[in-house]
Amino acid sequence: MREVKDLLLATMNRDKVTEIAGLVKDLGINVLDLTAYPEFPEVEEGGESLEENSLLKARESFKYTGLTAMADDTGLFVDALDGEPGVFSSRFAGENASYDDNCRLLLEKMHGVPDPERSARFTCVVALVFPWGDEKLFKGEVEGIILGESRGQKGFGYDPVFYHQPSGKTFAEMDLEEKNALSHRAIAVRKAVLYLTEVVNRKS
User: Fold this and answer.
1) For the chain, what is the domain count?
2) Does the residue 10 lie in any domain?
3) Of 6, 26, 72, 73, which is the active-site residue?
């Protein structure tokens, strides 16, 4: 029988864990993250796409723990910068860059770009790797624009500069519940949770 009793979130990023755990809490399965495995070796995100990186992280996490693993990779794709920072979003300003460092560099590169040309999208790809060999990918996207300055104190990453026009807020001005109703990660994770629900409820 193909059962999922434990789900490992393949990240040590506490912000991501909080966000994703809130979306999978109703599945009735035990949710862990990589902080439970302090000796887990860091996975080199050497892929050229979000799909490659998310699968790489999920596969390595499954190999290390034997648990069903969920990993995501997320990128901010800015049209005026030919898609930058894209797959390199988390290390846009360098390997050890902080959220503020990345936002500061993005705002510098976008200085002087007129409002009609500040379009961007957050894209998230979630990978699921199961002990019986199945691998699944799920994608979520949200359109927005890059502001000229940061707004809001919530969220993380590029949230303070990413303006979501339908809500009239940056992601950093939203509380977690509001963000989880519409974010790129929420869209991708909900698709993954729907599939997980089918697996959990399957009899054989």
Assistant:
1) 1
2) yes
3) 73
